[in-house]
Amino acid sequence: METVVITGGDGFIGSHLVRYFAEKNLRVYALTIPENPVVKRIQNIRNVTVIQRNLNETDVLVKELPKSPLAFIHLAWSGVSPESRSSVDIQLGNVSLCLEAAKLAAKLKAQRFILPGSTMEYAYCGQEINEKACPSPQNVYGAAKISARYLCQALCEELKLPYIYAVITGIYAADRKDSNVIYYTILELLQGRKPSLTALEQRWDYVHIDDVTRAFYLIATQGKAGAFYGIGHGDNWPLANYITQIRDAIDPDLPLGIGEVPYKDSRLPSSCVDMTALKADTGFVPKIPFEKGIKEVIQNVKEVM
Fold this sequence. Notes:
2 domains, alpha/beta, two-stranded parallel sheet, single chain, 7-stranded parallel beta sheet, UDP-galactose 4-epimerase, domain 1
């Protein structure tokens, strides 16, 4: 049975990948930090081995992890909440952690080292994100992601470790709640209030978590060394389009306060990826349209209100 190693396997994205990969009959080794309560998300799953250790415990991990795994996916990253994205200390620690992960993957002779990135690295690049896009981070978090990308690339070349970088657009899911415009709008409308919003002209792409997990599975099994992949749905609409679809799914007659709030900055960020390389190398095609996927999110919000 082929094996994969996933750090941060008990996180939101990681736990979805762990379950999906296991269902695809891969043996999954999920690394989590010790005594993390959310590890219950992935315990007692067939084909899954949970290892609770810090990444710097290299000597022990080399013995506990499989040799030549199909892929080593490094998802572990601290400080993803909005209030932590500007912490230099936290984000620098993440860069060091990425390098430790690459060193461990090299010792295991992993067939692919996959490092996920964020569109926050390219907030103001002015184009769909691909390997030619110019990094233009929105915050310290984005700057750290850029540093991790290039430092890991250099280290992997030195270690002769096949390296893949994958940038993900905005993820939404029924089992996830974020402090972003989607969830703000849903909560306001369900509570009978009109959401106050900017003109929402910035272009965005939202992708369902199930499409993200399929994309990572295809990258882990078919991805090419040295590739830069964009993972998204490919809509690349103005944000106003998504908000209107949310309103229509709840009640088309409800008012929206689009344009009531002025922009904080004259520069509008964007979050759109070019999926040409991903489709060419793996055949990935997203399956869940926003109109369908967001209804699951709305229903879940109703149930927990």
